[in-house]
Amino acid sequence: MDVKTNVIRIGDRGGMPLIGDAFPEMEVITTQGVMKLPERFKGKWFILFSHPADYTPVCTTEFVAFQRRFEQFKALNCELIGLSVDQVFSHIKWIEWIKEKLDVEIQFPIIADT
Fold this sequence. Notes:
The chain is α/β, with parallel strands linked by helices. Helices cover 29% and strands 23% of the residues.
């Protein structure tokens, strides 16, 4: 623990972050452009959730469920951001497919962790 900042460094625990840890600064490529985290959501809570792959039935259902509650999260000062190893173009095509087939527009960004 760094006494001056009262922060436990993630590397001190073998890379496993815990609730309450400071989110590490990073620049990510998303379906809504390049974003700096956590700066992009300064003053807000945000939920970073991952999914194994675009176009899978369970992941699609989960994304639709998050989107249907999007306004409830915003009312709680909480933003959503998805994440998977798929590339941005795959994420974009997938959310277009969700809009076309399920009539649900995904409004939160999805990170390409490639």
